[in-house]
Known about the structure:
Keywords: Cytoplasm, Protein transport, Repeat, Transport. This protein is an all-alpha fold and 260 residues long. Helices cover 70% and strands 0% of the residues. It folds into two domains: 1-119, Serine Threonine Protein Phosphatase 5, Tetratricopeptide repeat (Alpha Horseshoe); 122-226, no CATH class.
Amino acid sequence: MPMTGKDKTAQGRSACVNIFNKLVEECNESALKYYNICLPFLLDSSNNENPVLRENALYGLRLCAKYGGFVFKPFIGEALSRINVVITHLHALAPENEQAYHDAVFALGQICQFHRESIDSTQIIPAWLNCLLIRGNMVVHDQLCSMVERSDRELLGPKYEHFPKNLSVFAEVLCTGKDLATEEMKSRMINPLRNLQKTVPAATWASAWSLLLPQQEMELESILSHKEDANLSSVQSGAKLGGRKGRKLKGRRQKLILRK
């Protein structure tokens, strides 16, 4: 692969990464024969000080994790190490590093999803969960939804010790604007949450619930108690109404009843 040497400019190296990424994304299996040549370069670039090169390399890692299959397996250990450097960096969420952080979290999620048998999932999956929320990256939250839908034990914890974090993320996604999830994704989240309400120990649920913001509690309670085919936005509007004008209306009705 030309122009991958460290004596080349970051712009030139980034161009090489983009070519390989495009090949992986478009050709999938046909690109596998280039992994042994290109992945070491991708891994090295994922911790580069140049933010654009770093972002492109991490984006490539997430593609390789998804499409690489057994060819990617020998690189998983170093990929996790490189991703950890990005995620735990002191200034990981600084504006110039934020996109690389998002790509690193996404890549970690892809490794959890497609290479679980090759990692210590009891450690890695909770570490990935603790990186959420990711604003502006709906796919990561879709990954979370898929894992909760299948009652992923590593995600929830053997004794539901990770449930509070799950509930916190779900509450934020369901009660916030469109930058965290589509309406379809939000609708998918409701039934798994209803199921968890039945299976999570009452004390654990109550403890996790107490950590939510008051507005989140009110909206989430309204969402969970509403009919399954209800429109989510209308439920949220109702929750907000119940929090302000709704209470006034209720009080007025009570006064009318007392008058009778």
